């Protein structure tokens, strides 16, 4: 065991016409320091290496080369390109003008006569990037040695995984799965055996054509998905210590981080992409942060497909190289600072690295090889044009061979295992010549001891970090309850019982034992037997079959014909002693029990809270009712009061009017009285005047008389 820091480099690309500016904000010095300075922002940080705008692709490749070479010694290696959209990730990983020049070859790599095509994609690249340079280097270094390389090309688009080599239209998203034998793997992902650098370039070119791209503000040809070009490197021969080496090489060209463009309205699809990209990059940041903080109790690998897929290539057992790409332009200072901060955080990860060595006589390896050989033979048998009779014979031979292998397990020599590996490779080559591809679910046949219902297997703690649903059934990465892949119809009779078969007098598995052959073969056998019995042969009971997934055979899509094999990932096989396994199982069991106990507590708490909540709601409802009644009563009272007041008002009004009338009447009466008094006074005065006149008249008459 040795420990090593992850390596972080920054690559500054030159100013481009698309930047529309001559103002720069990024400065560097000899000490691999980067300064971002634009009056508004200031950041200075130090990295393992800083590549200037004029640095060549060759110089960048030299930086990752030591880690690359180590893959041949059994160390995993992951190279990331991280940065803002248009900052040069694809340029760094694939090469200058890769996307524009990608020729997507329309020729067979091998013509029908088996002659090699002369096409060289490398020549068409202006300055090959890390991936083509690494491929050239690996094949040049292993020319004389015996290594096998398996390649696959994945893209993660909107949190869905697609096989870039098979699924141009992103029709079928793939699932990430994990188990004890294969580790973390992508179900249904094809792996191609590549015999030369040219093989790899063809795959690269084909996959890259299928990548999701879109024009963004900063890049006319922006990659909108994360892509991972994976290479598995395996030694064919065991070394003097009887050890086989293998390593996984991941080249990740991450989708560019991008800010929401407020000025130009973005299409919904673009916004969704942007959200998913930023989310998964943020999870990558969190994982890196969690690894760096040394608190490994919870690392959120499962929060994004990218981190889940790279779980065994992040933090442990892997040399990780992060190349942060930035633009020097002042207009991108904010994005540049955020990229540099991400790179800073990444620097803090301490990576423990160990070799992927596996003893050639390791039981798991033998089981894996046996299983693969069994499956490949089945496929070949189905493909070959032989009649049923021939097929039957071959299956008998295979049955016996497998029987022998089963009994021999544990007493294998290194040479025998190497022979198994050789045989495995040859079978794949034969499939390659036939241009056959298949779904690797077929290979995912549980070993005999696992042929119990899946939940039992989970309980034994065989799936690290496995999640269960409320009924204790295992969940997959998408949170769905797992169904046994190939064992949905698996015999429920429990583990395999090793008793001699009464019909053929050998130990199972044999054709009379349930759970041995696939449906197709079993059907062929059944009909072969029935025709044999019709012809007077001894009648045999055929027994039930496993009902496993039928081998799916289809022609390879596109013109490339190559070897196909399927993901068999199991990288941490060292120290795989039974006691360590038992301890691990125990620890997992305890962990699961703890989780269940915690879940129960949480459920109890939740129930209690629910009850409290219901109570509160009831009280609230009662209070509300009372309040409503009260308000109704008040409304009625108010209405009555209002009525009374109105009545009073009316009365007062009437009274006021009556009073006024009275007053007016009084006034009228007074006026009348006054008038009457005046009339009377006038009358009296007139009377007096008349009397006076009468008096004076009388007196004059008297005087006259006198
Ligand atoms: N070091 C460099 N030297 C010259 N040109 C470069 C360099 N880096 C990037 N470029 C150019 O800048 C443009 C954008 O680069 P590239 O496509 O690699 O960006 P990207 O980070 O992969 O973007 P996205 O995330 O949007 O896919 C391309 O035209 C590329 O050729």
Automatic annotation (TrEMBL):
GO terms for cellular component: microtubule. SUPFAM superfamilies: P-loop containing nucleoside triphosphate hydrolases. This is Kinesin-like protein. Residues 439-494, 528-556, 623-648 are annotated as: Disordered. It comes from Stentor coeruleus. Residues 5-349 form the Kinesin motor domain. ATP binds at residues 83-90. Belongs to the TRAFAC class myosin-kinesin ATPase superfamily. Kinesin family. The lineage of its organism: Eukaryota, Sar, Alveolata, Ciliophora, Postciliodesmatophora. One of its GO terms (biological process) is microtubule-based movement. Signal peptide: none annotated. Residues 466-476 have a biased composition (Basic and acidic residues). Keywords: ATP-binding, Coiled coil, Microtubule, Motor protein, Nucleotide-binding.
């Amino acid at each position: 065991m040795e420990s090593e820091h992850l390596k972080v480099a920054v690559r500054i690309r030159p100013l481009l016409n698309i930047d529309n500016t001559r103002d720069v904000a990024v400065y560097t010095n000899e000490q691999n320091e980067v300064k971002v300075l634009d009056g508004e922002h200031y950041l200075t940080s130090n990295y393992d290496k800083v590549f200037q705008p004029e640095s060549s692709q060759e110089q960048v490749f030299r930086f990752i080369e030591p880690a690359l070479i180590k893959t041949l010694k059994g160390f995993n290696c992951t190279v990331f390109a991280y940065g803002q959209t248009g900052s040069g990730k694809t340029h760094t990983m694939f090469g200058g003008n890769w996307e524009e020049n990608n020729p997507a070859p329309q020729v067979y790599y091998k013509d029908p006569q088996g002659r090699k095509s002369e096409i060289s994609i490398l020549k068409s690249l202006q300055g090959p990037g890390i991936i083509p340079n690494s491929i050239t280097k690996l094949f040049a270094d292993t020319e004389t040695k015996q290594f096998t390389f398996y390649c696959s090309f994945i893209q993660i688009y909107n949190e869905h995984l697609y096989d870039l080599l098979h699924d141009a239209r992103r029709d079928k998203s793939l699932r990430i799965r994990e188990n004890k034998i294969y580790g973390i793997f992508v179900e249904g992902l094809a792996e191609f055996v590549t015999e030369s650098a040219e093989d790899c370039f063809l795959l690269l070119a084909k996959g890259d054509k299928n990548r999701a791209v879109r024009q963004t503000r900063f890049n006319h040809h922006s990659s909108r998905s994360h892509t991972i070009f994976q290479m598995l490197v395996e030694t064919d021969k065991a070394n003097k210590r009887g050890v086989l080496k293998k390593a996984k090489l991941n080249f990740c060209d991450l989708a560019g981080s991008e800010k929401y463009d407020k000025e130009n309205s973005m299409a919904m699809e673009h916004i969704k992409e942007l959200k998913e990209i930023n989310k998964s990059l943020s999870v990558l940041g969190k994982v890196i942060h969690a690894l760096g903080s040394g608190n490994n109790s919870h690392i959120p690998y499962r929060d994004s497909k990218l981190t889940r897929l790279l779980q065994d290539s992040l933090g442990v057992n892997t040399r990780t190289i992060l190349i942060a790409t930035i633009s020097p332009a002042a207009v991108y200072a904010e994005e540049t600072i955020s990229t540099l901060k991400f790179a800073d955080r990444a620097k803090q990860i301490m990576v423990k690295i160990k070799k992927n060595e596996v003893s050639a006589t390791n039981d798991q390896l033998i089981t894996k090889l046996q299983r693969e050989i069994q499956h490949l033979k089945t496929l070949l048998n189905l493909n070959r044009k032989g009649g049923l009779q021939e097929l039957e014979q071959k299956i008998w031979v295979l049955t016996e061979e497998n029987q022998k292998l089963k009994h021999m397990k544990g007493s294998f020599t290194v040479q025998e295992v190497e022979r198994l590996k050789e045989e495995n490779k040859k079978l794949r080559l034969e499939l390659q010549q036939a241009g056959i591809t298949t779904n690797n679910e077929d290979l995912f046949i549980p070993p005999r001891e696992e042929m119990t219902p899946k939940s039992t297997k989970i309980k034994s703690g065989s799936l690290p970090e496995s999640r269960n649903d409320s009924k204790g059934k295992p969940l997959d990465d998408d949170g769905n309850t797992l169904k046994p892949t190939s064992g949905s119809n698996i015999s429920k009779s429990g583990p395999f019982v090793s008793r001699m078969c009464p019909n053929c007098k050998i130990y199972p598995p044999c054709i009379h034992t349930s759970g041995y052959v696939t449906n197709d073969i079993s059907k062929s056998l059944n009909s072969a037997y029935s025709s044999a019995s019709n012809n007077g042969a001894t009648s045999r009971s055929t027994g039930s079959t496993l009902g496993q997934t039928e081998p799916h055979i289809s022609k390879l899509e596109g013109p490339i014909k190559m070897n196909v094999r399927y993901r068999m990932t199991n990288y941490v096989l060292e120290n795989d002693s039974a006691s360590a396994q038992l301890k691990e199982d125990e620890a997992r069991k305890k962990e699961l029990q703890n989780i269940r106990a915690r879940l129960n507590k949480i459920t109890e708490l939740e129930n209690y809270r629910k009850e409290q909540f219901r109570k509160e709601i009831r009280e609230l409802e009662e209070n509300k009712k009372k309040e409503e009644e009260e308000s109704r009563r008040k409304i009625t009272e108010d209405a009555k009061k209002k009525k009374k007041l109105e009545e009073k008002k009316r009365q007062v009004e009437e009274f006021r009017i009556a009073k006024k009338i009275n007053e007016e009447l009084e006034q009228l009466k007074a006026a009348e009285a006054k008038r009457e008094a005046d009339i009377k006074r006038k009358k009296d005065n007139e009377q007096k005047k008349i009397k006076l006149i009468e008096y004076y008249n009388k007196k004059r008459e008297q005087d006259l008389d006198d």
